[in-house]
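Tokens in:
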């Protein structure tokens, strides 16, 4: 699991009103998160996978563009058409970044401000949840 995926999971857990405990087991590694009194705390039996705990990861640059709805992520306007954006591309406010399909309705996700695409976090054709990170961008 990539660090960005772990960070996204922790972020979603922190914002959740429904989850009080989350435990993720991958191979022999266990990540356990628990909220007490509305705050996130590590529990005594929690551990961080070895590759995540050895050195502090640098703070990732940029801000996230999140899914405004649950749907299928499409990078371009049609399968035979190129993607709206690519990593390193400058985008102006209002230009489409992707399309989300929900119940046969296609909704473009526009850039909120002028920015540069740093990372595309969703895979073409993948189901994305509400508020799930789709892009990491740097504002211009």
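Residues out:
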């Amino acid at each position: 699991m990539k660090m960005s995926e772990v960070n996204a999971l922790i972020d979603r857990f922190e914002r959740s009103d429904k989850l009080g405990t989350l435990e993720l087991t991958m191979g022999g590694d266990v990540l356990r998160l628990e909220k007490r009194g509305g705050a996130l705390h590590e529990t005594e039996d929690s551990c961080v996978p070895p590759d995540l705990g050895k050195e502090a990861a640098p703070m990732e640059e940029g801000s996230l563009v999140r899914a405004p709805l649950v749907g299928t992520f499409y990078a371009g306007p049609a399968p035979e058409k190129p993607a709206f954006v690519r990593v390193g591309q400058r985008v102006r406010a209002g230009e489409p970044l992707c399309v989300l399909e929900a119940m046969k309705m296609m909704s473009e996700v526009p850039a909120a401000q002028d920015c540069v695409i740093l990372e595309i976090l969703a895979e073409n054709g993948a189901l994305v949840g509400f508020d799930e990170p789709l892009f990491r961008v740097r504002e211009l």
